[in-house]
Amino acid sequence: MNGLKKGWMNVLRVAVSAGALAFLFWKIGLGETLAVLRQADLRYLLAAFLLFVLSLVIRAYRWLVLLRGLDPSVPFGRLLRLYFVGAFFNAFLPTSFGGDVVRALELARDTDGSAAVGTVLLDRMTGLLVLFVMGLAVLPFHATRMEPWLVWLLLAVAGGGLIVGALVPEGRFLRRITGRLPVGLSLAGRGPLAKVYAAVTGCGRRAVLSAFGVSVVFNIINVLINWLCGQAVGAGISLGYFFVVTPLLSVSLLIPSIGGWGVRETVSTAVFAPTGAGANVAAALGVSLGGVTLAAGLVGGVLYGVEGLRGLRVRR
Predict the structure, then answer these.
(1) Average pLDDT of the chain?
(2) How far apart, in whole angstroms, are the C-alpha atoms of residue 251 and residue 133?
């Protein structure tokens, strides 16, 4: 049954990516978008790729900061390799095991499984919360250039995310309201979710605050990566606008798909075309960003392959 469910999830991911791309390019024109991509400035894309690699290093350090409060024995190099491997799984494989799941499973070989899952979740959450704050902070300066529905969507996503993010580290409230649920679903007690939640809340305030600080640096780089992809295809959109819409781009990648393909290009067209860049340039921006992500994922794939070969040699 589990295998059948995973198979259907993979089919769903393929359908979402293929369907979204087919509909988008049927609507705006594939040839026109390819023409934009052929004229892309590779220097900007190279800079975006290098920044993406740097962002993986920064995120691995953020993960280390969170994990230190639970298990200081895991070295930074191990976490860095896992982040690159996670990027590979995110970018290439049509599987229900996303990069975050792979990171947690691999780290569980070195430390407690609950700590592995909890720190992966908190690592992702701190990054998104800082991104939401950045987006809301600059929204008033760019709202007039955005469609009204887009402004309201950003407010709903960022505002809702911040509310949830404020409740998660506090601990007592969520434990109280889930205390009457079955053990497997409760955040209180000794069930599996409760153990993961204990790891999330057990990292310590100092570690979480430090992770937020690291997330500020990471998200500035994240926005710069998107902006550089825009520069590469001649979008001519201000850096400030990217601070506003990057939260939507990041959250959209949580939708089941293959490496974000289809979803990323559709959202990119929706948020950038109204600025005057045009639908084809906006879609090309999304494709460029996907290409940068693929390239960084390929680095992770090489590392994953090398580790696999080393494991085979050890067994021999």
Answers:
(1) 87
(2) 14
CA distances from 53 to 116, 126, 233, 280, 293 (A): 23, 19, 21, 27, 9
Residue 198, pLDDT score: 84
Alpha carbon of 205 to those of 66, 161, 169, 200, 201: distances in Å? 10, 19, 9, 11, 9
**Residue the block writes with tokens 């580290």:** 169
Residue 147: phi and psi, rounded to 5, are: -65, 145
DSSP letters, 195-254, are HHHHHHHHS-HHHHHHHHHHHHHHHHHHHHHHHHHHHHTT----HHHHHHHHHHHHHHTT
Q: Is the pLDDT of residue 57 over 50?
A: yes
Quick one: CA torsion of 49, 90, 59, 195, rounded to 10 degrees? 180
Query: What distances in angstroms separate CA 239 from CA 112, 225, 264, one per listed residue?
Result: 41, 10, 19
How much is the pTM? 0.89
Q: What is the tens place of the pLDDT at every residue in 185-244?
A: 778 878 888 888 888 888 888 999 999 999 999 999 999 999 999 999 999 999 999 999
